[in-house]
Structure formats: structure tokens, C-alpha cells
Amino acid sequence: MKAMLLRVGIDKGSGGCLAPIFQDGSFEYIPIPETEETKEIKTFKNTQGVKNKPFAAYIPEKIHELPIHFDPEFETFTYGDATSKRKSLLKLDENDLLVFYAGLEPYMNNKFSSALYIIGYFKVKEIIDFNKLETQEIIQYSKKYSNNAHIKRINGFENLVIIAGDKKSKILDKAILISEPKLNKLGRPYHAVSPVMEKLLGIKGSIQRSIPPRFIEDPSYLENLNKLLNL
């Protein structure tokens, strides 16, 4: 068994902001805006979050009416990618963990900081490489995983990999802090793995970007991760 850590969700580069974390440690998982033609009808304005407010309450007005790229989605537990991350996704096996973290910033509280937090995970059930599918198989998987944001796109499935999670997959009730701010040689801030998480998970350095994803394979670190996620 192994685990892969992957950054997701709206951020300063894709959407222009971070999602909120609240005083009680709960949070909104707000995905990025969709950038391609899609059948998705959910927008940031018509989609409510855990606090019964539309996502639009937390984000720049210029993207309120845009469709949402819900990826990952935690209704049927799918995550898809057709970029260079596909190579990392294809290293996953059944029963591995795909752990998602996101940038969050405090909303009307000073208890938390703007940082990276673990927000959920999939227990991997299936890995589908669309490049290896025949036409009929593509049709079948498109129906099976129709809730995935990439399936809802109009422009086809070239290079698409979809990871499907089992029923044990979940989005967390409370976010788990994984980073701390540091400065690079030019004095610019970035998010690095916190000392606590370095010790627990055996990873270190910058996790500002989703590439390259981090893998955890050592049994002792995986045990710590399982405890962290209450598995």
C-alpha cells in the first residue's frame, strides 16, 4: 500500500483566492473554475457550501457565473486528470490512498492561518486510463463516472486518467494543517511541509504546487497517515 498527496481546489493562480476555513476547523472545498466547454450547470453562484452560503460569498465577483470544475468530486468519489499528473496517477493501485490537500485562509477568525490543509481522501477502487480503452469501453466508463468534471467536458478524453474511490472515501469534517510558510532565497513566501508533518509522514520541502505529487510508501509513515485520517 502507498499514498499519494495531491493539491486541489481554488487558489491564487486558478480562481484568484483561497477557500475559507472557519473558527471550528470546518472549511469549504471550493474547486477551480472550469476552463473548457462543459455540460456542467453548477456555478459558484448557484452552488451552496457547508455553511449554506453560495461559493460566490467567498470568491472574486468576476468568476461568480463561471461553471465549476468539480475535481475531485465527493459524491461518487472520482478524480480525473489529462495533464502530466496522469503519470503519477497511473502509479496508484487498488486500495492505495489518494489524499487531497488545498489552500485555505481564515474566514472571520484568527484561530487559523492561510496555509495548506488536508481536506479529504479516496481509498482507490479503480484506475482507468482512457488511452487504453476501446470506443465501447469509453462509452461505458463515461456513463459509469458521468459525475466527473472531465467526463462533462465536450472536447473528448485524450490522455484522461480517472481514479475512482470506494465507499470509504470521504471529505473531512475538519481540515488538517500540513504546511508552514517559509521564504525562498529571493525572500518570496512559499508553503513547505511543517516540521510536525515531516516527522509524521516522512515528506519535506515545498508542497506549494500539485506537481510533483508526493508519495508515502514507508509502512510506519503510512500508519501515521492512517491515524491522522482516522482510518
Provide an overview of this structure.
The chain is 13% helix and 29% strand. By secondary structure, the protein is of the alpha+beta class. Strands 1, 2, 5, 6, 7, 8, 9 and 12 form an eight-stranded mixed beta sheet that branches. A two-stranded antiparallel ribbon has the order 3-4. Strands 10-11 form a two-stranded antiparallel ribbon.
Describe the secondary structure blueprint for this structure.
Blueprint: E1 3-7, E2 19-21, E3 32-33, E4 68-69, E5 78-81, H1 86-89, E6 97-106, E7 115-129, H2 135-144, E8 161-165, E9 170-177, E10 179-183, E11 189-193, H3 195-201, E12 214-216, H4 219-228
Mean pLDDT over the full residue set: 95
User: What low-confidence regions span 5 or more consecutive residues with pLDDT below 50?
Assistant: none
Count of domains? 1
What's the β-strand tally?
Answer: 12
Structural class: alpha+beta
SSE string, helix = H, strand = E?
A: EEEEEHEEHEEEEHEH
Helicity level? 10-25%
* Overall geometric form: globular
- Number of helices in the DSSP assignment: 4
Largest sheet: 8 strands, mixed
Give the DSSP E fraction (strand runs of 2 or more residues). 25-35%
Structure at a glance:
With 231 residues, this protein is an alpha+beta fold. It is built from four helices and twelve strands.
Keywords:
8-stranded mixed beta sheet, 231 residues, 29% strand, 4 helices
